[in-house]
Amino acid sequence: MQQPILGYWEIRGYAEPLRMLLAHFGVAFEDKQYILGPAPDFDRSDWLNVKETLGFDFPNLPYFIDENIKLTETLAIYEYICAKYNPSYLGNTIVEKAYVAMITGVLRDFNSAIGRACYSQDAATLIPLALESQKPVLARFVKYIEGKTFLVGDHPTYVDFYFYESLDRLDAIDPSYLAGISPLFEAYKSHIRSLTHVEEFVSRPNRLHFQGPAAGWRG
């Protein structure tokens, strides 16, 4: 049986939580990474040259190929991987599934705000402003995760992996930022690292940059 393929740029970006999730599930997969060229052109031809040849209905990165199944769009890939390997990671009840979707949406908006600052060429100025502007969101997360091991229910779901990567980027930007808000974030990250294969995954040497070469801060 052919290994599934996860395709994305040679960065962490949207794909890193998916990589972590697959590693946690013990899935052997091909981690196909497309090169982004250096400044000033940031050449994308490594991907563009094959984009229309792989048989996707809506070609994009990240993508996931599992035999004859060819998916794009991050959320669809999360849902497919979980449905195939451990459906409880989608949520066990209607309410849990709704909360997974809700928190995913909150994190998408949160990460977009941080990401815009990181990709700015004035990142040194804009990142501190973005971090300050997002403190109210993190304050809500502090209140929400208090007394919890995982974000939804008493078991991990895919949004935990998304949240972990979001927190990890913040720690890379400013190691004192989250600690200055609440110790609960590091406690939460510790819980996630204790899951099967996760510590091994996050401790790998030579990890990829968070952002591409066009970013003012790559991480």
Write structural notes for this entry.
This protein is an alpha+beta fold. The protein is built from ten helices and four strands. The radius of gyration is 17 Å and the shape is globular. β3 (63-66) and β4 (69-72) form a beta hairpin. The protein starts with a strand and ends in a 17-residue tail after the last helix. The longest helix is centred in the middle third of the chain and has 26 residues, at 94-119.
Which labels suit this protein?
alpha+beta; 10 helices; 219 residues; globular
Tell me the β content.
5-15%
Counted by DSSP, the helix tally is 10
The amount of helix comes to 40-55%
Briefly note the structural class of the backbone.
alpha+beta
Q: Assign an overall shape.
A: globular
Low-confidence stretches: none
Distance between the termini: 36 Å
What letter string, H or E per element, gives the SSE order? EHEHEEHHHHHHHH
